[in-house]
Write a structure and sequence with these properties.
Number of helices: 5
CATH topology of the domain at 5-117: Aminopeptidase
CATH class of the domain at 5-117: Alpha Beta
Mean pLDDT: 92
Low-confidence stretches: none
Radius of gyration: 15 Å
Distance between the termini: 20 Å
Order of helices and strands: EHHHEEEHEHEE
Helix content: 25-40%
Strand order of the largest sheet: 1-2-3-4-5-7-6
Shape: globular
CATH architecture of the domain at 5-117: 3-Layer(aba) Sandwich
């Protein structure tokens, strides 16, 4: 397994975000456009000021190559996991290693009991990350997401602290 570390996002990481979100698949999935220095800094700022979330830069060999986060932490000690890697870092196990670290952190440091995530059915790579990180499939949510006017089914996965 590849070695990754997680750390907080820093303002000097903005060019990395801009590069990552210039990829067509990443740009399509962003809640808002991240195509300027200001937008990148705002994205980092949103994560930095939330009580219900924590995001981490994923670092390999000293270079930021992605993001993992847990958000929407609720009163039931449940959180929503998200992840992405830059195109050049894909296919090497980076996302799996990062999600495993995030999961350990969320259970140990935040005291969460349940972590959930979802991926479009047409994204088998994301499914592989979830499965390899120990998240069990729980079902399909029909037409849950909408990108550019097209609806997508989402497969939900979850992992419990007791798994």
């Amino acid at each position: 397994m590849i070695e990754v570390e997680l750390r907080g996002w820093r303002p000097d990481d903005a060019p990395i975000l801009l590069d990552a979100f210039s990829s067509p698949d990443m740009a399509q999935q962003a809640a808002r456009r991240i195509d300027t220095q200001r937008a990148a800094l705002e994205w980092m700022g949103v994560w930095g000021f939330r009580e219900d979330a924590q995001a981490f830069a994923v670092v390999v060999d000293g270079q930021v190559v992605g993001n993992v986060a847990v958000s929407n932490i609720d009163a039931h000690d449940t959180g929503w996991v998200s992840y992405w890697t830059s195109p050049h870092a894909r296919g090497r196990g980076v996302a799996v290693a990062a999600v495993r670290l995030l999961t350990d952190w969320a259970f140990r440091e935040r005291g969460l009991f349940r972590l959930e995530l979802g991926h479009r059915l047409n994204n088998p790579a994301s499914c592989a990350v979830a499965t390899r990180a120990g998240f069990l499939t729980e079902g399909v949510e029909r037409a849950k997401l909408s990108y550019e006017g097209e609806r997508y089914d989402v497969e939900r996965h979850a992992r419990l602290a007791t798994d």
